[in-house]
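ok here's histidine kinase:
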Amino acid sequence: LGIIRSRTEALGRFMTAYSQLARLPQPKLLPVNVSEWVGSTVKLETRVKVSLGKGPEAVISADRDQLEQLLINLIRNAADAALETKGGVQVGWMRRRGQVELWVVDDGPGLPNTANLFVPFFTTKPGGSGIGLVLSRQIAEAHGGELTLKNRSDARGCEARLVLPV
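and the structure:
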């Protein structure tokens, strides 16, 4: 009975995660102030210190709710990694060539394998769903943007970089 209950719970989590991926709505594009969006989202993470390096004023055409979910996912992942090493998280942005480039950098242990980062349902976290980064990339692409993750070259940790058109 215990095995059946465990498999039923796992299947329920899988179905919930799958349905989230399958029904990402088209973004409702409205003007979004980058400073306000990033500043309010950064405040939601309370487990580790998140340093905010404010960039230049910028307004983008985007679905703020979707971008908040994307940034929450990136900051939560960075905070999870930083907790492993008692490190921190840095968030900032800049404008370059008609785009806003936003980064989330952590002082965690880094990524052991970057090949499967955006594979649906792949996770290295106990209890993780494996949809956070996949959903985040879908949101970025639905906004005409790009999301990349890589290990830092200057120090221990990881860097997520989101590029969106202005």
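+1. The radius of gyration is 17 Å.
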